[in-house]
Amino acid sequence: MYDFDTPALRTGTGAIKWDLRQSAFGNGDALPFWVADSDYMSPPEVVDALQEAAKNCVFGYTVPTKSYKDAVAGWVSRRHGWEIDTDWLVPSTGIVSELSNIVRCFTEPGDKVLIQTPVYDPFAGVVRDAGRTLVENRLLCGGDLRYTMDFEDLERKLAAGVKMMILCSPHNPVGRVWTREEVCRTAELCEEYGVLLVSDEIHWDILMPGRVHFSAGNAGTDGNVIVLCAPSKTFNVAGLKCSNDIIPDAGLREKLTKWKETLHVEGSNNLGMIACEAAYTHGERWCDEQNGYLWGNAELVRAVLAQRLPEVRVAPLEGTYLMWLDITKTGFGSRAVCEKLNRAGAILNDGYRYGDDGFVRLNIACPRAQLRAGLEVITACLAGELKR
User: Fold this and answer.
1) Is the pLDDT of residue 388 over 70?
2) Which of 51, 210, 271, 374 has the fewest CB atoms inside 10 Å of its own CB, making it the most exposed?
3) Which of the listed CATH numbers 3.40.50.10190, 3.30.9.10, 3.40.50.300, 3.90.1150.10 matches domain 16-43+285-387?
4) Which of these, 316, 290, 82, 363, lies nearest to 199 by C-alpha position?
5) pTM above threshold 0.70
6) How are beta strands 196-200 and 225-229 bridged, if at all?
7) DSSP labels for 121-173?
């Protein structure tokens, strides 16, 4: 059994999540549940591989090795049922920066790029910063807080000249794991209207019981899709700057590769690739046990809020370690709620940044004792506000 209860040492290490608490939120003692990384230690197999690499005492320029590519392809096959050719892999240094490259490579200023809101806020940023036109296809929120796609609105907007769609799968922050039918319908619509589908699947390994991830790359529209993935969320190695584009179409692959060469941003991080290979070779049991631990954390959140703060409802968590909490019955918007929680001692993300001011986002990838302490702060603070 792996240990997810022992916290990693993060303060004083430059960790954004911990060391920016004072400057960003005005409370250096608050428990952080915002940045999407984990507060327990990475897999020992990954740590061992990095320590072994350090013994070589050289960290020079590298290219992806055959064993690296085979490890990525093997993971995609075993975990996600998608058989890929290793030639399809284009290493990169992170999914947000790669999204920026892709938007700029495959669209022109003023072109329409579609996202499905509420969604991870850098999606909108990379579109607007590139001078493209942002198009929103709002997700539909049911009475049980489970979100679905509005395919009627999606098709209408794709048909109106959208050049690219960015899909978040599994979805951050609403916690959906899209079904095979939903993914295939999305891919088919993009193909029908000549829209390039770019699928951010960084959370694809983090699945709750009974959920199966279906990759957009497996939808049968190989000439019209780019899948972005990384070990960073699964194995807590985001700082090592390693991600992978999976691009079945040779023309798309060549165009993006040449674009990146002109910017001198091709390649990936040496130690990041070592960590990725180790994780994808030896990390399956750790991943499964982490998912079980995260499910226990999610159950704790639901139980505590139902008992102590029933006014705050919880969206069903199917994937990711990010819980989406409905705070509309508190009478406050998400920014006001987060300010109150910051002062009380817990840092969450406000839903306003994702496109819905009635929700806040809670990161549960932490030791259970830390989560319990955070829930004490959250329930005491908001229950007190509701009594006023």
Assistant:
1) no
2) 210
3) 3.90.1150.10
4) 82
5) yes
6) parallel
7) THHHHHHHHTTPEEEE-PPEE-TTS-EE--HHHHHHHHHTTEEEEEEESS-TT
